[in-house]
Amino acid sequence: MVKTENFTKEQIDILKKYVTNISSNIFVLKNLPEVIKGALFSRYSRSSLGLRSLLLKDFILNDEISFSDFDEKEDDNLAVEKANNFYDRILDGFGDDSIGELGGAHLAIENVSIIAAKIIEDCRIGGSPLEKSTRYIYFDKKVNGEYLFYKEPILMTSAYKEIYLDTCNHLFDTYTKLIPSLTKIIQKDFPREEKVSEVAYKAALRAKVLDCLRGLLPASTLTNLGTFGNGRFYENLIKKLSTNSLAEMQEISKDTYSELYKIMPSFIKRTDPTSKYQIAHTNFIEKTRQNLQILSDEHSKLVEEHRNPGIYLINSDPDAASKVAASLLFEFNQSSLASFQKYAQSLSHEEIIRIFEAASVHRENRRHKSFRALENASFIFEMVADFGIYRDLQRHRMLTQERQLLTCDYGYFIPKEIMGTEMEKDYEIAMKNAKNTYDTIASELKEEAQYIVPMAYNLHWYFNINLRSLQWLCELRSSPQGHQNYRYVAQEMAKQVCEKFPEFESFFKFVDFEGYSLGRMDQEIRRIEKTRAKR
Length: 535
Fold this sequence. Notes:
three-stranded antiparallel β-sheet; Gyrase A, domain 2; single chain; disordered C terminus
C-alpha cells in the first residue's frame, strides 16, 4: 500500500476523532458538520494533499473558521457563521453545482398529503425518501375526533368546504367499517396452516386486507416521509415545491428551506425566496407553464382519443436488439461502436440470442444486475391504472415519468375479494360519492379537487424506461410479496417487451408471473425466523 502521509502523535490524536482510520487509504469521515465536509471535499479536488492532511491544515488548524469553537460548541452561532462563510468562498472560487452534492441531511416531513409525498418523491436524483406504508399501518386513527387528512386551505375557505369534509370522512368511515368484515372473509378463505406461526400469519393477513382497502383512502390522506438527500437534491426540491400552484407544496417549501437553513445554509442559499436565483427560476417556471397551457388547450381540441384502463407499449426502437448486442460486445475489444452496430444488424436471430444468453446465464437472482449495455434499448409505456399502483411504481427514479392531474374520469378499481359480498355496495357508494364531489369541485378548482380522489381511481401517466431499468422494475415488483395490482403491471410490461422482442426474454428470467393468495406470507415467515435466530 502506497503511503504518502506521515502524522505526528499529536496530529494522530486529533485526527482519530474525525476519521475512522489514520493509516489506510480508505477511511470515513465522522463527527464533522455538513458544511465542513462539503468544504473539505470541494478543496480536496484541487489540492495535492491527502484528505486528512487537508483537514488538519485548512480546517482544524485554521483560525479563520474557528474550528475549535465549532467543535466544542456546536450551537455557537459565530463559529457556524464563520464556517459557512468559508464554505461560500470556496463555492464561489471553485464552484459548480456538483459541490452541492458534498453535504447532506436527514429531513423528516410529517403530516403531509399523499399528493405532496408524490411530488416530493418525484425529485429523482440525490435523495432517498421513504414513505409511511398503507400496507402495514391502519389509517383508521382519529386525533381529536378527526380522521387524518389534509384540510386544503383554499377548499376550507370556499363553498366546497362541507362537501369536501363530508366526502373525506365518508371514505375513511367506509375504510374503517370494512376492515373487520374483510379480515373475517380472507381469514375464512385462507386459514392459517399449522406450520405457519400466528405472528407471520397475522402480518400477512393484515397486509392483504389493507392492500385491498387502500383504494378508499383519498389523496388528502396524511402521511410521513423520511428523506436523506444532498444539498443539490434539497435545492431542487425546494425550487420544485415553491413553484407548484398548490398551497400545501408552497408551505412545505418554506418550512423545508427554514429547517435546512439551520443545518446547511450554504447548500440551499440560492433557494431563498428573495434571492435573484429563486426569483428568476420562479419566473421561468410560471411563464413556461402559461405558454404550454395555452398551446395544450389549443391542440387538445384536435386530440380526442382517450385511453381505456391498461398498459400500452407505445414506442420502442426496432433496432433495440442489435444495439444491445453491439454494446455488450463493444466493451471487450477495440472496434468502434458504430461498426459493431452495423455488424450486429446482420446477425441472425439465433446469434443475437446466443449473445444475450451469454450475458444472462450466470445471473442467479434479481440483484445480479445486468451490464449497462441494456440501457441502449428504450421503451415508452402509457398507463391508465389506479393511483395506488402509480404511488408504488413512481418510487423508481432511474427513468422518466410524467402524470396528468388526478381525476375521477377513468373509472376505479374494485378488489376481487369484495366483489359479490355485502362490502361491494359500501365500496361503490363511497367511490361514486367521491366522484360527484370531485366533479363539483373540479368545475372551479381542478387542482385542489385532486385531494378528494380515492387511490382506487385510475390515473393517466407514462414511463420512458430503458431495458436495464425495466428488468429491475419488473423482477422486483412482480415478486410474491408485492401488491397484486402493481405485480400485474410489472408482469404485463415484461410480457409486452418480450412479445415484441423475443430476444430479450432471457433478461426477464426472474419475473414472477404467478398469482398468490397471501403474498406476504413467505416474507413474514422469514422475518420471524430471522428475529428468533438473533435472540
